[in-house]
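Obj.: predict assembly geometry.
Materials: sequence records (below).
Method: joint structure prediction, all chains together.
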Amino acid sequence: MNRNPSTDETRFQQHLKKLQKEKRSIMIWQLIIFTSFFSLWEISSRLRWVDPLLFSSPTKIGDLLLAKITDGSIFMHMRVTLLETVAGFLLGTVLGILLAATLWWFPKLSKIIDPYLVILNAMPKVALGPIIIVALGPGYFSIIAMGAIISVIITTIVVYSAFQGVDRNYVKVLRSFGANRFQIFKEAILPASFPTIISTFKVNVGLSWVGVIVGEFLVSQKGLGYLIIYGFQVFDFTLVLASLMIIAIFAAIMYQLVERLERKLIRG
Amino acid sequence: MTFLSLNHVTHQYFSKQGFTKAIEDVSLSIEEGQFVSFLGPSGCGKTTLLSIIAGLLTPTEGTVTIQRQPSSNTNIGYMLQQDYLFPWKTIQENVLLGPHIQGNITEMKKEKAIQILEEIGLASVVKSYPSQLSGGMRQRAALARTLMTDPKLLLLDEPFSALDYQTKLKLENLVSQMLKQYGKTSLLVTHDIGEAIAMSDTVYVLKARPGRIAKTFQVPDHLRTLTPFEARQHADFNDLFQTIWKELDQLESESIN
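Observations (raw structure tokens):
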């Protein structure tokens, strides 16, 4: 059929080149947006198109970050917030999945508490902040609890509905081999729901940052949320924006880690 | 000796709107090693019947016994319309699912799995995932999974209906040969008249709403000894096909009136 295999090969090479070119062009555009955003910000701040007191400028933020990194004071805040967020994320996600499993195990229970779940989900969880702080004391525990509570109910609801959506015929296959309820859960229900569970991970990464930062707003003496609220109180918006930058970078890293986990867990 | 017997089995489904009778007063008995088919239109309660025989569903009335035991105590193999291989398990892990669930994976079982996969022509894809296989290969892997636990009774719920015609004919031959070789009693549900005749010893024609046995056809001995593919070529195959066709046609017009 292929009278001239070298042309096929060249066509394939051309195709590869085209893909590479496309990839490069996307990266170039991303770089253009990045640099023009920051240069525009810098220029408009220097030329006073915007209020430099309010919007600061990239160089001021950079200087501040550099100073805080050299004297080492920023690391303590970073560590505290990161630990709280990771703990809140893990706690909220794991608790949510466990709750979903419990609901799956006891179908009657899930029918009974359904309206309560709906209400809890609709309620703004950060409004519970003051109660949590009084109950658990102003410290790590309250902030971790804030990071967890914000994601636990939505995780429960989403994961439980994924459990319910698993094709009944997989269960039928397992039951024909005499599987018990736990085996059905372990062999079919849970692995079939992995894609949904991973996507709740992605949502929860963002949610735990919200919970923890709000928690730090309310109570803390340390952490990036504290730096933001402190910067706001002393009208140091360079500090506010610098903290925000760090949060954005950390959140992006966490998201990347979850994506890597996704590729590992979901094959094919 | 009677292997499987159904005594006046009736089953209803209940909903808020009321109830529907899926099957009504079905009685039959099947000898060991026989291959029987249930042939009928949709809504004749075929899947309900199989679920009851498998012990996955308790009938509202009547009893099912396998060798005088309640059916839930017996090892039954179930093949479904689609393969329902677990996409996150390799073919080997899928085939070993039965022993895995029953907690007795041994070296012997692993060898047996490999042997069955070889017989069935899947030796080269043992470590592959189901998504890498064609529909026919997947259904063959599902057959291997079913045979692994050495079921006494095999329930086949339209296992060939989702396949293309050529694959279906090939698989009919393979399944029929494997089941004869392993001496299994089998029960096939289908809406394909040709398939029912080509594969079975006895064909039960069901009528719909509620499902009950309308008529029983014995497949002549000389057709039974042929492979399904050869049987389809035989002159007598067509005669039986016509007879059953008319029967089904009549049932349909009766149910409309």
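Conclusions so far: The two ends of chain A are 32 Å apart (CA to CA).
To do: check interface contacts against the pulldown list.
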